UniProtKB/TrEMBL annotation:
Residues 18-88 form the ABM domain. InterPro entries: ABM_dom, Dimeric_a/b-barrel, Jasmonate_Hydroxylase-like. SUPFAM superfamilies: Dimeric alpha+beta barrel. This is ABM domain-containing protein. Pfam families: ABM. The gene is yqjZ.
Length: 116
């Protein structure tokens, strides 16, 4: 049974933008948790940020899908100086490999069970 506090990012009125980051981590966790916390603070301050979902596999593959109102909002996130520094750290220390896919969402809908 899934806890009720866990919910996907709700559907938004399209179009909007999604960035799908898929990565395989190294064993080096030095500074990762602190940087991740700081990146979360920065991205949430972006007025066009809509939310994100993240999951990982037991084998070490991690996937994060972030949603933004438009490409300008995503570009602002990409170009943030602290985010740029974190990306460099990721390539140097934290990731064996990763891929990034950016797409425009054309359709969006959702479902929430009414347990009442």
């Amino acid at each position: 049974m899934v806890a009720m506090s866990i919910q996907p990012v709700p559907p938004y009125e399209p179009p909007y933008v999604m960035a799908v980051f898929t990565g395989v981590r190294t064993c080096d966790d030095t500074g990762y948790a602190e940087t991740s916390t700081r990146m979360n603070e920065i991205v949430r301050a972006n007025p066009g940020f809509l939310g994100y979902e993240s999951a990982g596999t037991p084998g070490g593959l991690g996937i994060t899908v972030a949603y933004f109102r438009d490409h300008d909002s995503l570009t602002a996130w990409r170009d943030d100086p602290e985010h740029q520094a974190a990306m460099k750290q990721g390539r140097t220390h934290w990731y064996e490999s990763y891929s990034l896919h950016v797409a425009t969402v054309e359709r969006s809908h959702g479902f929430v069970r009414d347990n009442g």
